Amino acid sequence: MLKRPLPTQQERVLGEDDFIVSKTDLKGIITYGNRHFIQMSGYSERELLGTPHSILRHPDMPRVVFRLLWDTIQAKREICAYVKNLAKDGSFYWVFANITPSFDRAGDLIGYYSVRRKPRAEAVASIAQIYQALLAEERKAGDGQEGMKASLALLNQTLERKGISYEEFVFGL
Questions:
Q1: Nearest CA to 85 among 61, 62, 50, 68?
Q2: Which CATH number fits domain 19-172: 3.40.640.10, 3.30.450.20, 3.30.70.920, 3.40.50.1820?
Q3: What is the pTM of this model?
Q4: 105-152 pLDDT, tens per residue?
């Protein structure tokens, strides 16, 4: 298992025309990554393959966002989200991710496929503030399920106040 690095304030920026592509199995273990994925992560292909995708989880990301992602893709639906990732050297990079379930010919779920691109700076500024509030709510309520519930409640309240769905919110940033 790879050791998670300590985060730094150094940002990596994805190119305008670059797309990060990866595939995982049903448990989130990386089975494929394109050259942009490998380059941005800072890990070698050998280090990434067979490793949980969560190795890239930045501590600034609220757990509730990943719960929303997992709940959606395990329900065999695609989802988009802004994600702050942690590279091997501790630097970070933001992506706009589209995550879709993958099926075999019989229609059985076999894994997940994600394509990420460079997000708009304005969207990152907006979502970073929201993620900070969600993370603060998680920490205030505790590390367990209570923190997750509190963060989810705050996310739902935010969406209800705006009168929009999560999908409308993400695409409106």
A1: 61
A2: 3.30.450.20
A3: 0.94
A4: 999 999 999 999 999 999 999 999 999 999 999 999 987 889 999 999
